[in-house]
Design brief:
The protein has 7 helices and 9 strands. It is of the alpha/beta class and 223 residues long. A 7-stranded mixed β-sheet has the order 3-2-6-1-7-8-9, sandwiched between helices. Strands 4-5 form a two-stranded antiparallel ribbon. Helix 1 runs parallel beside helix 2, helix 4 crosses helix 5 and helix 6 crosses helix 7. The protein is globular. The N and C termini lie far apart (39 Å).
Length: 223
């Protein structure tokens, strides 16, 4: 039965841009790699989201597992339509961190980003905000979940596939499978997807949800 295991990237050096890993994040990746090496039998495929923090996490995993870390845009973090240009949210987050204008003076997408950042800085849960609040400048959770499922199905094979991914899309995928938000994955915490034809089993924190593989075409809401 094909298994795709999503792992949140290691602790990052910061969210003021698309930064790498902290020393603790590198240690987390090494620890996860050792556990996978002890568990895995046979070939392991290692993929990663295109961000720096995901790539560095995957490179540590791949080195320990005798694999090559390959990028896969389907597993990218959720994005922001920043003035019409779609970009990785942490990159935009850092670039506009110094904005000092009031929310009502900002373009709509930037006001959304400012609210998201405000929650992050205050110690709140910005991913929960994204999951539950329509943010017109942000890639919607449902679109991200479909995108992840397309990448999962594209890479399902005989080998275990390990993906260095991001917490927001992982959390959205788990919320869809379990019909409610299960909270933020820790760094290197796994979400395991086992495929069986048109159905799948999603494992997270000792709980299991059985789901049908979603219809992966993007709907045309208006015709």
């Amino acid at each position: 039965m094909p298994e795709i295991r999503l792992l949140r990237h290691g602790e990052t050096a910061g969210y003021e841009g698309d930064l790498g890993l902290s020393e603790r994040g590198e240690a987390q990746a090494r620890e996860a790699a050792a556990a996978l090496a002890a568990e895995a039998h046979g070939k392991v495929q290692v993929l990663h989201a295109p961000s720096v923090r995901a790539r560095l996490t995957a490179e540590v995993l791949a080195e320990q597992l005798g694999a090559t870390a390959e990028p896969e845009r389907g597993f990218a973090n959720f994005t922001v339509a920043a003035g019409g240009e779609v970009r990785e949210q942490a990159e935009v987050f850092g670039e506009y961190a110094g904005q000092r204008r009031s929310l009502d003076e900002l373009p709509g997408w930037l006001a959304d980003l400012a609210r998201f950042r405000q929650i992050h800085v205050s110690g709140g849960d910005p991913i929960a905000f994204w999951l539950h609040t329509p943010l017109l400048g942000f890639e919607p959770p449902a679109v991200v979940v479909r995108r992840y499922w397309r990448a999962i199905m594209a890479h399902a094979g005989d080998a275990l596939t390990v993906v260095a991914a991001h917490s927001g899309p992982m959390r959205a995928l788990v919320a869809h499978a379990f019909h409610e938000d299960q909270g933020e994955p820790d760094n290197l915490e796994p979400v395991a997807i086992h495929l069986d034809g048109g159905r799948a089993r999603v494992d997270f924190r000792g709980a299991t949800a059985a789901v049908a593989v979603p219809d992966l075409d993007e709907p045309r809401w208006w015709r």
